[in-house]
Model the fold of this input.
Amino acid sequence: MEESLTVCGKTYRLIKLLGHGKGGYSYLAECGGRLFVLKQIHHEPCDYYTFGNKIEAEIRDYGRLREAGIRVPELVDVDQDAERIVKEYIDGDTIDEMIRDGSSAESYLEQVRLMAKQAGEHGLNIDYYPTNFVVRDGLLWYIDYECNPYSDEWNFENWGIEYWGPGGL
Done:
């Protein structure tokens, strides 16, 4: 992949696609010798989720997560016109990769439960799907900025845990 995108006057060389979610495409990108995640918002239909302004939601949700004390990558830059965000790259395996490789995510349950508690205390749920969590130096990071109003139905114990191992842990 030899493509680049510009965010607020800085050119980021795209290295590889990291993921395609309901809100956008996330790329591993390089600028000035440093690695970042560059997310390009898309407007593809999603049958199970309703969006407002996605770029404004990214900014708002980042602030809400930080206020709740949840470990998230730093928001580096935002280009509202191009609908792009740049955030800190957290290098490490996702919980999803660990589970697919046959490793247990059990040692990270205490950390995700703490995140769930912090989110709940601030009236939020985060997206507990394992692709949204990266382990770096033993610490669990929530690498997505998505959060929604709290509901028991979508909390970690009632929804998220189902995806953290074979049949839940």
